[in-house]
Amino acid sequence: MPKARWTMIALCFFASAINYIDRANLAVAAPFIQHELHLSAATMSFILGAFFWTYAAMQIPFGWLADRLGARATMAASVVWWSVFTMLTGVMRSVPGLIGARLLLGAGEAGAYPACTKVVSTWFPRNERGIASGIFTSGVEVGAALSLPVVAWAIATFGWKWSFLVTGALGLAWAVVWLIVYRDPERHPRLEPTELTALQLARSSHAMQPDAGAPGPRWGALLRHRTVLGMMAGFFCMNFVKYFFITWFPTYLMSARGFSLAQLGTFGMLPALCAIPACWIGGATSDFMFRRGWSMTAARKTCLAAGMLLSSSITLCAFVDSRAVALALFVVTHFSLSFTSANAWALPTDVAPTPRHVATLSAIQNTASNVAGILTSTFTGVMLTITHGSFVVPLVTAGAFCVLGACSYLFVVGPVEPIQPNGRSRRGRPQLGAA
Questions:
Q1: How does pLDDT run across 57-87, given as a tens digit for each residue?
Q2: How far, CA to CA in Å, does 128 sit from each of 120, 161, 203, 223, 354?
Q3: What does the angle CA 191 – CA 193 – CA 196 come to, to the nearest 5 degrees?
Q4: Which of 22, 44, 170 is nearest to 90 (CA)?
Q5: What's the rounded Cα separation, in Å, for the pair 28 and 313?
Q6: CA 327 to CA 330: how far, in whole Å?
Q7: Is 133 helix (H, G, I), strand (E, B) or coil?
Q8: What digits encode the pLDDT tens for the residues 154-195?
């Protein structure tokens, strides 16, 4: 296999990190924005949730573009777009302005993960796609971990507005490097012919149709498959919990557990730090199981269900008195969600009917997951208003969604193999995952 594949996935890793720093900025700055602009928790929840409306709505358009234009152009356009509107968030002084900036930020960030999935499908053989997905998704956790100390430092030193300008500039710098370095394998000038041949043979060993001839099913036809619906439901449940860390976790530590800003920048980053290796471990575990003779269905589903069930420990955070125990439970939850995430992002490369459907299928499941982002931020804010600042209902609800997500991956998702519109597998037998 070409060694250049690790460079390409490393670029995706850094893009994911910047992506999450930019979207998490507002969560860290939220208490200060609320104080300066005199906003209620409910109003702040609508500002936090605005991002997810356009992020969800633009997933499929960006996935379609990544499948047709390739990862290089799509990723560059996405990063430049969101970086500009990250910077503009820092100059807004009103609720409508903040909501508008977040809506446009969400639209731009929608292209990142479908394009990253496309890179995994293009550059990696099937038995390495779990670890490759784990690498780029671990960038999410690095971004979440760095956003707390970096943004907290920027707020303490310069004020909340400057944090958006600094992180937006990081994205623009990354886009320049991406355009210089990234090429698909068939267009890479330094790839040896033997490396390219080996990669093409490894990719064609998958039961997926080659990217030629008939265009394959439209994205709407994919929604008739039970497997796709199960992927959407499982990802929805996973991100309902995961987006609590992106939106309300800093506020929870400060208001419910009494963390200072300095403690938020140190202890608050522990869940995200521990989640970084979880992405690698989750992807590597399913790849290892597959190489050891497990079916891809058994390997992926075991890791998906186990991770979701363990993450339900977030519910216990609502009932423990010790700050240390509560923080440890959040660490376990975030670790488990990230273990699951690596395998969830690998699923589109496993079940896509053709290479021209990988990014689109990735975008479909991510659309469902980001409806959860809208609900998490809004539901938590409304519950805080109703219960006068109590996080009990949001945390119990999050644990229930973890169990529901495990059931979806186990019982709704069918065989982890390429799907077809007629509901039959590549080997001609009825496909259990088709509706």
A1: 899 899 999 998 999 999 999 999 999 998 8
A2: 9, 41, 11, 27, 18
A3: 70
A4: 22
A5: 24
A6: 5
A7: helix
A8: 777 777 778 788 888 889 999 999 999 999 999 988 888 888
Q: Rounded distance, CA 29 to CA 385, Å?
A: 19
For residue 33, the one-letter residue type is: I
Question: pLDDT tier at 319 (50, 70, 90 boundaries)?
Answer: very high
CATH class of 4-185+222-412: mainly alpha
Q: For residue 80, how many C-alpha atoms fall within 13 Å in the half-sphere facing its CB?
A: 11
Residue 350's φ and ψ, nearest 5 degrees, are -80, -35
Separation between Cα atoms, residue 244 and residue 337, nearest integer Å: 12
Q: In the chain, what are the domain boundaries?
A: 4-185+222-412
348-385 burial: b if 16+ Cβ within 10 Å, else e: bbbbbbbbbbbbbbbbbbbbbbbbbbbbbbbbbbbbbe
The Cα–Cα gap between 106 and 102 comes to: 6
395 touches 321 (CB < 8 A): no
